[in-house]
Specification:
The complex is a heterodimer of chains A (370) and B (380). Chain A has 370 residues and is α+β, with helices and mostly antiparallel strands. Chain A folds into three domains: 181 residues, Rossmann fold; 59 residues, Roll (SH3 type barrels); 89 residues, Elongation Factor Tu (Ef-tu), domain 3 (Beta Barrel), CATH 2.40.30.10. In chain A, 23% of the residues lie in helices and 31% in strands. A six-stranded antiparallel β-barrel of chain A has the order 12-15-14-13-16-17. The model of chain A has no long low-confidence stretch (mean pLDDT 94). Chain B is an alpha/beta fold and 380 residues long. Chain B folds into two domains: 132 residues, Aspartate Aminotransferase, domain 1; 236 residues, 3-Layer(aba) Sandwich (Aspartate Aminotransferase, domain 2). In chain B, helix 8 packs across helix 11. The relative contact order of chain B is 0.17. The model of chain B has no long low-confidence stretch (mean pLDDT 96). The chains are: A alpha+beta (370), B alpha/beta (380). Chains A and B meet through strand 2, helix 2 and strand 3 of A and helix 9 and strand 13 of B.
Chain lengths: 370, 380
């Protein structure tokens, strides 16, 4: 067993408070800490200035406070090929992708992990709210102690090989404790606002951003019975269960997106938050990852999240022979969205996850959700 | 772990004698050289002396030396200053695609103001061709700006030939000689050139000082407005202690030029030889017979600049490559792109090692061994 001072930990630093505190804690614990900033998106203007500049400046300031070396690494090409292309393809197919899950799988815990290892690192650490527990050489991923910030939903694709090499120094902390540690240590990022939204879009308008890459095809908004209610700006701008931006007035309950017909370019709408068409009782998911490394063979009970920061729901999981699995819900679920991740838990342990492909109602695929 | 500095083209350590020369100036000669009292006069005396020394280092008249804050300011003053002052004669400027950003960004700013800029190419040797300059010259060309030694590859440009060619043309000829000054013998009595930009901290002098040589009669607009310092060509109270240190650095490098060059050649050879002995897969960028002994730019096939530089630094070897964007990530080198094409792997797998006073035969060899180990480890 190496001593901590001889154990090199590369910390992925974003310039935010979480990764800053992650680096601080590791440094305090005596590790050989190296801070690395990832640049995944190129929006450099003609003056060589990009939106990542301020974030990298913050990384520099924090690393200098901690007296650790800092570097940057560029994964723009990998990000474009593995994350952004997928993101666009999914929108084209009428689905709602989750680029954060893909970024963790392909970039942070693959390309970046490889980079860290090429620098002689023993571990890669990030500021994610999650925990790793070792039992005799096998690893479990647990939810972060702060359930409100828990990020295992986004980390569901991590494998045993990866879990063996990662550290999540914030996993046992509440977000407010992290802020407090940052403030007590006067870290340059202590008061910095948390970033929101998808990293490459940043503060920009989502619709404007997407329209730069995908041609918008306006079409009809219709009820499932075929009654035309208005025009939509392009199916990709809408997601299931959405209320905002439909512009349908009139009497009665507000209108919601209940489905998409990509073939005929129709956006289905229905009246009422609890519109029946938004509810389903099962799903089929592919691209399954099991954090234990062992795919289950028999059906089992678990809890599941279908989107980030949602309460867990009780489910039964039925592994399928082709590697996919079916999930049935204890109670009907609203707005299950193809393209998003379904992530499974056994208590605090994140068992893994997969991409939602098909939404089921009474064992039959709902065809109108895209 | 001993840290080994192989980045002298970025900046150099100050010579101890330079520091010694500066300290008493900070302590005692604090006057403003423009003041009309004895404190001012003492400072002015130092300034005059330094101006004579630096002028004579290139065979210039002391009136032709404008002290600046460094090489970047000297380039900007030369380029923008002559362009503004001579725009009635034409708006065409010629430079190369391998210039330092101080030059490239200065001409780009002029381009945005309506000047027409020709960027000359280079071939794989890394040098611009005199014929290309000749072909690019037009009746409305007012300025040609070409560096003497490229800061990334160390390749020496045919400045004498170009200067001779330019002699019969109205255009001014400016050269950024930041990487050449001191090591190469430059004499403006023999070299028909109008403007030369020099930096103090590249020759073991202090940061924050440099000079622009401006041949007498050159029309130059001032960029910085204020007092009437530097014959109204550069406003602002002179940085007297830095100028004094710069003078000392000029004296030392002028005196030791030959022995420095011999030592740097030995370091460079030792470094390359060691890579060879360690069976590293590498190739040298640019024509070796045209390269300054203080710089070597090496391509490591199959490697990646960021991984190499980070590994080098973590094992104590300081080198560099190309330039970084504002978010720290290494951008493909514009110089190597100009030499080999933007898609060539050499633009993303090459490292510049540059030698100087922080080196000795031993640490250069040690550094090469560490570099070899890292390259071998990353190849596995």
């Amino acid at each position: 067993m190496k001593e901590r001072k001889d154990t090199r930990v590369v910390v992925g630093m974003s310039g935010g408070v979480d990764s800053s505190v992650a680096a601080l804690l590791l440094k305090q614990q005596g590790y050989d800490v190296v801070g690395i900033f990832m640049k995944n998106w190129d929006d450099t203007d003609e003056n060589g200035v990009c939106t990542a500049t301020e974030d990298y400046e913050d990384v520099i300031r924090v690393c200098n406070q901690l007296d650790i070396p800092y570097y940057a690494v560029n994964f723009e090409k990998q990000y474009w090929d593995k994350v952004f292309s997928y993101f666009l393809e999914e929108y084209k197919a009428g689905r709602t992708p989750n680029p954060d899950v893909m970024c963790n799988k392909e970039i942070k815990f693959k390309a970046f992990l490889d980079h860290a290892m090429s620098l002689g690192a023993d571990y890669l650490a990030t500021g994610h709210y999650a925990q790793v527990r070792e039992n005799n050489g096998s690893y479990e991923m647990l939810r972060g102690v702060d359930h409100n910030k828990d990020q295992t939903y986004f980390l569901n694709q991590l494998s045993q090989d990866v879990l063996a090499k990662v550290m999540f120094p914030l996993g046992h902390l509440e977000k407010k404790e992290v802020r407090k540690i940052a403030e007590e240590n006067d870290l340059a990022t202590a008061k910095k606002k948390d970033s929101t939204g998808i990293c490459f879009i940043g503060e920009r308008n989502f619709k404007d951003f997407l329209s730069e890459y995908l041609p918008a095809q306006p079409g009809n908004m219709e009820t499932l019975d075929g009654e035309v209610k208005g025009k939509h700006d392009g199916l990709m701008y809408y997601t299931l269960g959405q209320r905002q931006g439909l512009g349908i007035g009139g009497a009665g309950d507000p209108w919601f997106v209940v489905g998409k017909n990509v073939e005929d370019n129709i956006l289905y709408v229905g009246q009422g938050f609890h519109h029946d068409a938004l509810y389903s009782d099962g799903l089929i998911a592919s691209e399954a990852n099991w954090t234990s490394g062992n795919a289950p063979i028999e059906a089992f009970k678990a809890t599941a999240k279908f989107r980030y920061r949602q309460e867990d729901s009780g489910v039964t999981v039925f592994p399928m022979e082709d590697g996919r699995f079916k999930v049935t819900f204890d109670e009907p679920e609203r707005a299950i969205t193809p393209g998003q991740a379904v992530v499974l838990y056994d208590g605090e342990v994140c068992l893994g996850g997969a991409t939602i492909d098909t939404v089921l109602k009474e064992e039959t695929a709902i065809t109108y959700v895209g | 772990m001993e840290s080994i500095y192989l980045d002298h083209a970025a900046t150099t350590p100050m010579h101890p004698d330079v520091i010694e020369e500066m300290v008493p100036v900070y302590k005692e000669t604090f006057g403003n050289p423009s003041s009309v009292h004895q404190f001012g006069r003492s400072a002015r005396r130092l300034l005059d002396q330094a101006r004579r020394t630096t002028a004579s280092s290139i065979g210039a008249n002391e009136k032709e030396i404008v002290f600046t804050s460094g090489g970047t300011e000297a380039d900007n003053l030369a380029i923008i200053g002559t362009a503004i002052a001579n725009q009635q004669k034409g708006k065409h400027i010629i430079t190369t695609s391998i210039e330092h950003h101080a030059t490239l960004h200065a001409v780009e700013s002029l381009e945005a103001q309506g000047f027409d800029v020709t960027y000359l190419p280079v071939d794989e040797s890394g040098a611009v061709k005199t014929e290309d300059v000749q072909q690019a010259l037009r009746d409305d060309t007012i300025l040609v700006s070409i560096m003497m030694v490229n800061n990334e590859t160390g390749v020496i440009q045919p400045i004498e030939e170009i200067a001779d060619l330019m002699n019969s043309h109205q255009a001014y000829f400016h050269s950024d000689i930041v990487q050449a000054y001191g090591l190469l013998n430059i004499n403006v009595k023999e070299l028909p050139i109008d403007l030369l930009a020099v930096s103090g901290h590249k020759i073991n002098g202090p940061k924050g000082v440099g000079f622009l040589y401006v041949r007498e009669g050159t029309q130059l607009a001032t960029l910085q407005h204020g007092g009437e310092q530097e014959r109204k060509r550069r406003a602002g109270t002179e940085n007297v202690p830095a100028v004094k240190g710069f003078e000392k650095a000029v004296e030392i490098i002028t005196e030791k030029r030959t022995s420095y060059r011999e030592a740097y050649r030995r370091y460079r050879n030792r470094f390359i030889e060691t890579l060879k002995e360690e069976s590293v897969n590498y190739s040298i960028n640019g024509a070796e017979d045209k390269t300054m002994e203080s710089i070597v730019n090496i391509s490591f096939p199959g490697m990646n600049v960021e991984t190499l530089l980070t590994n080098f630094d973590l094992s104590g070897v300081a080198a560099s490559s190309g330039s970084a964007c504002t978010a720290g990530s290494v951008e493909p080198s514009h110089v190597l792109s100009a030499m080999y094409g933007a898609e060539d792997d050499r633009t993303t797998n090459s490292i510049r090692f540059s030698f100087g006073l922080a080196n000795n035969d031993d640490n250069v060899e040690q550094a090469a061994k560490k570099v070899s180990q890292i390259v071998h480890r990353l190849s596995d």
